[in-house]
Design brief:
The chain is of the alpha/beta class. It has a domain of 172 residues: 3-Layer(aba) Sandwich (Rossmann fold). 37% of the residues lie in helices and 24% in strands. It contains eleven helices and ten strands. A six-stranded mixed beta sheet has the order 6-7-8-3-9-10, sandwiched between helices. Strands 2-1-4-5 form a four-stranded antiparallel beta sheet, with helices on one face. Helix 3 runs parallel beside helix 6 and helix 5 runs antiparallel to helix 6. The chain starts with a strand and ends with a helix. Bound molecules: adenosine-5'-diphosphate (ADP) and magnesium ion (MG). Adenosine-5'-diphosphate binds next to strand 2 and helix 1.
Length: 259
């Protein structure tokens, strides 16, 4: 079987004539952990909004050969595409387990949802382990720490069997330890041969965990490749640090060591 991949071709999103995403071409293979970075307003969120069916776009975005552009959000989700938002959208009054159950139920018939099950389904139990929330399965999601809510949201995508996961700034507001946990979680998910796209602001996090990077600027792809390659790219340095020559120390302070 051919590997699954996300292929974006000439993707464009305009808001009243303002072009937020401008003829973007981008491919991400299954197993990759692709970071999408770029300054505020670069079009990162709009790009994943377009791929997940939240905003209208022109051009093409296919996953596993299926065209996503022009389809409704729920149809795109059924094609194995899932995304998270910067602010976690879990059901606060329900337990962690119930949240996962509901997400898993999106794939089950309403009849099987009505039947009471005596045990936790294997896929849900496995996901609890994967996202490190087994001990909190019966806790209301509302009491979870910020980081744990993000992990629950990622778990909700996993039980839906999302094959393409797009995460919008998953580590914003997390402690250093939570960021590392999240990075390792994302690596495990990518290692399961899923396709993972992470929109991020946090350069340290990006350097530690990105397998590959695409830099967006003013709606266009500015640079792409390994962490080292985009850090060393003068166009990326110019966008992040301004025009002109920058010392190694200046670059390192913004884009990290080794740039
Ligand atoms: P990023 O996530 O990279 O910070 P966004 O994708 O949120 O950037 O925004 C890209 C640009 O599109 C920004 O200039 C933003 O103001 C604009 N934009 C985003 N959403 C809308 C909208 N619904 N209507 C009008 N302009 C928007
Ligand atoms: Mg954004």
């Amino acid at each position: 079987m051919q590997a699954e991949y996300l292929e974006i071709t000439d993707l464009t999103v305009s808001f009243d004539g303002f072009v937020a995403v401008d003829t973007v071409n981008l491919s991400v293979l299954a197993g990759d952990l692709r970071f999408l970075i770029g300054p505020n307003g670069a079009g990162k969120t709009t790009l994943i909004d377009a791929v997940s069916g939240l905003v209208a776009a022109t051009g093409s975005a296919t996953f596993d050969g299926n065209e996503l552009i022009g389809r409704k959000e729920h149809r795109i989700a059924r094609l194995g595409v899932g995304r998270t938002f910067q602010t976690a959208t879990v059901f606060e009054e329900l337990t962690v387990l119930q949240n996962l159950d509901i997400a898993a139920g999106a794939k089950r018939s309403s009849l099987s949802l009505l039947r009471r099950r005596r045990s936790v389904p294997a896929a849900v139990a496995e996901t609890l382990e994967t996202v490190g929330l087994t001990d909190l399965a019966d806790a209301p999601a509302g009491i979870l720490a910020h980081g744990q809510k993000q992990w629950l949201e990622i778990g909700m995508l996993l039980v839906q069997d999302a094959r393409l996961l797009m995460l919008d700034e998953p580590v914003a507001g997390m402690s250093g330890e939570e960021k590392d946990e999240t990075g390792r979680l994302l690596q495990r998910i990518a290692a399961e041969n899923r396709t993972v796209v992470v929109v991020e602001h946090d350069m340290d996090f990006m350097r530690s965990f990105a397998a590959s990077v695409t830099v967006l600027h003013a709606g266009k792809v500015l640079s792409e490749g390994s962490v080292e390659k985009v850090q060393a790219d003068p166009r990326v340095q110019e966008v992040y640090l301004g025009p002109g020559h920058h010392t190694e120390a200046e670059v390192a302070a913004v884009l990290g060591e080794g740039a």
